[in-house]
Amino acid sequence: MAGKVFFSVSMSLDGFIAPESPEDLMGQQWMELQQWVFRQRFFRENLKLGEGGEEGRDNDIVRETFERTGASVLGKRMFDAGEGAWPEDPPFHTPVFVVTHEERDPWERQGGTTFYFVNDGIESALDRAREAAGEQDVRIAGGGETIVQYLNAGLIDEFHVALSPVLFGSGIRLFEGVEAGRVALDLVSAEPSPSTTHLNYTVHPR
C-alpha cells in the first residue's frame, strides 16, 4: 500500500515560513520560528548537535515526522539555500528529489541521503519519491512555492503546521498563490504545547 503525501512546517502567526532572502536563513527571526524544534532531543541527536534536549509531545512529533518519511521532495530554491549549510550528514536520511530545470548527477551524502535532480516536473519528482519511499510517506519538504504547487495539483493528502508565537511582517508566505477555490481542508487535531501549537489537516478537492 502506498504511503501518503504530506508536508510539515513551522509558521509564524502572520503566515510566514521563511525570510524573503535565503541569506537570512539561520537569522534571528528564523531561529525564533524554529526554536521549538531545536530544543528537542530527537532533533539534536539527528543533527548531531550534542546531547540533551527536551522530551515530551513536541519531541514525539519531531520523531514521528522523521520516522514516517521514506523520501522527500524539495524545490530548487530550498536546495540552493541548504546546499552550503547542511553538514556532510544532512538531516533527511532518505532519498531527496529536487524539482529543478538543472541537469545534474545525483549527489550522495552521508547517513543515507542522496539528492536526485528531476527536471521534468513536480509529478515526475513525486512518482520517483513514491517509488523510493515504498510503503512509507513522502514529505514535500519545501519551500513554500513547491508546497503550493503540489497543493494546487491536488497531490497533498495531509499536512502539519507548527504555529509559532512569533511575527515576521514579511517573507515567504506558506499559502501564497494557492488556488483556494479548489482546496478544502478538514481539521484533524489542534494540540498546544508550551512552545507552539500543532495543527493537523487533511486535504481534499473542493
Automatic annotation (TrEMBL):
Classify the source by domain of life.
Answer: Bacteria
Where is coiled-coil annotated?
none
What InterPro entries is this protein classified in?
DHFR-like_dom_sf, RibDG_C, Riboflavin_Biosynth_HTPR
**Matching Gene3D superfamilies:** Dihydrofolate Reductase, subunit A (3.40.430.10)
User: What range(s) does the Bacterial bifunctional deaminase-reductase C-terminal domain occupy?
Assistant: 4-197
Name of this chain's protein: Dihydrofolate reductase family protein
Q: Which organism is it from?
A: Leifsonia kafniensis
